[in-house]
Structures are given as structure tokens and as C-alpha cells.
Amino acid sequence: MSKPVTVFAFLGTTLDAGSGPDRWERWRPNVAMCQHEDLLVSRLELFYGSRHKRLAQDVVRDIGQISPETSVNLVPMELRDPWDFGAVYEALYDFSRTYTFAPDDEDYLIQITTGTHVAQICLFLLTEARYLPGRLLQISPPKRRREGTPGDYSIIDLDLSRYDRIATRFTAERDEATSFLKAGIETRNAAFNEMIERIEMVAVRSPAPVLLTGPTGAGKTQLARRIYELKRSRHLVEGEFVEVNCATLRGDQAMSALFGHVKGAFTGAQAARAGLLKSADKGMLFLDEIGELGLDEQAMMLRAIEEGRFLPMGADREETSRFVLIAGTNRDLSTQVAEGKFREDLLARLDLWTFRLPGLKDRIEDIAPNLSFELNRYAERTGERVTFNKEAETRFLNFAASQDASWTGNFRDLSAAVTRMATFAPAGRITVAEVEQELATLTARWPKSENNAGSDQLRSVLSPDQLDDLDLFDQAQLAQVIEVCKTSASLSDAGRKLFQASRRKRTSTNDADRLRKYLARFGLDWNTVAAGEAAT
Question: pTM score > 0.85 for this model?
Fold first, then answer.
């Protein structure tokens, strides 16, 4: 046996109105609700204001006539302003906290067709939060007006899969947004992916400035533009994306470029200029390398961010611009503040949302998907599809993840490498030959380090495949052994140098044999190492 149904509803001061005989020809929501044969309402809790008490009593009388089994309880609810969200929510919340619910004995429906839109939203929120432990009820008029026809109704259970599907849809849209911020690249670095998810939430929920830090070539400019595109797709901005590299701005040029000038403001100012801040009105301004901005420009920028106002050079009247700001830098702005090169109050304004983009060396697992992305970009630019053969791709990826690859230019280095290899690839196929040529180009461009020096030692006696198979630990140890061997007169001399501590402790009896066995582990012998001839 089903449980009795109790409905909570607002009196429809317009929709429920009617006192003459013709009222039965009108569709009145709360009356029609009680006319459905398959919706048996045992009790109606009807919210009303004192000004509409007579109408409420008329509704009670009519419901008693068409549905004698329905009892109506009039609930006074005085709302000074039924469009005041806070007041309406507070009144309904207070009711929900004092009402005695018995969900084991009754079913509850919350009718959201009558009442102001504010009241309907508040009822939804309270039901979703389970302060009103029921389901939503929507009622609608008949498609064709016929006397005595109650129309239609639908019951929405916020706990059922239908609502879950809606929630899943929003989750899918969020996943789509994060994928967009990553340019569709299936990145694998967990820390980077988590950061992008946080950026997505900030982008769609906060208009505050965002500070992107990280090394040159980490992708700050591309990410800033994608944040703009995401905001624009959500109608959060409608103006243009305006980008400026602060490192290129100096003196009057900086002031003029950013804030504009009037005619004659300085020598050479033959015409007025609006400035980049004005161009970014209702859009987004990306200040790359903001750490290079002068202190005077920083002061004006701070006021423009906070108040949306600034004074063009030579002008006596302020301009206004409301823009979203994204700033980028590869510097430590806190250090610059300590050195007096950056304003502390500006950094405080920028530092609400700060995200550090890692360099390519910190995202080794993302090199493979970015390699595919760069090949696709090359195809879009040139119309030519280029691919790796298996051996060439393995060789490049092994090198890319090794200590030999410093990636000082980060993703710019990777993009340039792909462009060069694809350009020289015969018949659209990158082979080991093109890879080896590119690796030589990259290592020649990158500054030498101790790791590079050690790798040079290894490359002098090992083939690329042998080197790729060695752990970093073994590479470091073997490089030092080879260095000693090359500066020693004989196998025995090298053994004495390498195992000197063991000799003092009398734990080493045959240093030459010990060194010979160590080299043999890597397929090497004394002659090969001493001569520095790479294995074949």
C-alpha cells in the first residue's frame, strides 16, 4: 500500500485566481493538481501572504469540492519582497527546520510551478540539500483548453539516475574544458593534469587576475590564450585577447603602448593612441614577462586592475577599461620585490591565483604525446603528413628522457626539433639518420654541463642503443671509470687509482682484474676504453 502524499506549494496569486463560475474554465495549478486521478494528494501545505488570504480560502474551498479526500493547511508566510533571494530562502529554511517530517510514513512533493522564480529556486535548493526530504513536482496546463482537464504533471527525483545523467553531463563538459586547455594532448604527468583542472575551475568561476610562472618555453602564452577562449565560450568575456611582451617595452614607449597617449604628448606623438588596456576592454589582457615592467608602469597597472581606470599620457581625463588580466613571468617576483624591482602591492594583487608551469624536463612522460601533437601541427602548417619509423621514434624518446637532453628551451626546443626532422624526412618518414642528426644539433646548442661531459665519455665507447639501456646510476659510475682509464697509463694503473681505498684497507688484491670484470659488464675492454672507440 502506497504512503499518503503531502505537497508543499506557494499560492499562485495570479494563476490560482478566480472567484466566479468561469473560474472552472481556467487552469489553476493548485486546484488542477488535485484533479489528477493518478496523483492522490492527501494534504496540501499552501504558503500564502496575508494580503491574499481570501484567494487562499477560495482555493481551499474549490479543492474541497473536487478532491474531498485532500486536506489543505494554510501556512502564513509573510515576504516583504518575494523577489529578495535571501529573505525567501531564510523563510523557507526556517519552515523546513521547524516542520515535523515523517518520511517513513509519508511521501513529500515540492511543487515548483507557482510562486516567484526566486521562490521556485529556493524550493529546489532546499530539496536538493534534503532540508525538504521530497521530490519536485512540476505541473503544466493542457495543450488544448478543455473544461475539466487538469493538464500534465511530472515528478523529479533528485536522487535518481536522471539527475545523475545531468551531473555526468556537466562532468563531461568540465573534462572537455580541461582537454581544451591542454590543446587536446593526452598528457600523463599527474601534477600537470591536476594543475590544469584547477586552472579550469578558476577560469570559469573567478574574474580575478591569474599569474602563470615557469621557465621560458613552458607554454604560458598558449595556455593564456586557451583560458581566454574558454572564458569566451562561457560568455565570461566578449572583448579581444590582447597580448604584450613587457620585455619589449621601455620608457615612454611602455606608457604609450599600455595606457595610450593624446596627440602631442611627447616628441613624435603625431596622433592619439588608445593603448592596449583600452583595446582589452571587456576582454583579456595578457602581460607576458610582467617582471620586466618598470615601477611607474606597475603603479598605473595596479590602479587599472583594481579600479578599471587609467590616465593616458598627456591626457587630463581618465579612460576606463574592464578586462581580465593574465600575467606571465619566468622570474621569481618575490625576489624582485625584495630587491625593489617589483611592487609588493601589485604582486599581492596578482598572487591570488598563481600556477607554475613545469619545464619539459619535469614532464618527461608527456614528451611522447607532445611529439605526436607537434607532428600534427606540422601537418596543419605544411599540408604534409610526416611520421617516425619505430626505431627512430624509440631513439628520439630515449634521448629526450635522458640526462643528455637539457631542453633549455622546453617545448620550443621540441617544436623546433620536430620541424627540422620532418623537413629533412625522406618520403615523409623520419628515420634514425634524421634523429641522430637532430640530436647532434640539439646537444650542440645546449650549454654543456657535468652531465653532458659524462655523457660524452660514454658516447665515445658505447653505441646509442647501449647507452639508452643503461640506468642513470650506471651511466654516472661508468663515465667516471672511463675518465680515469683515459688518463691512466695502463689497466693496472687505472685499477690502482679506482680502488685506492680498498688497497689501503687491504681488501683489494688484484685491481686490474677487478677493473677488467667491471668493464666486461658493459661489453668493454681496456683497449676500447683507452682508445675511446665507440662500440659497434
Answer: no
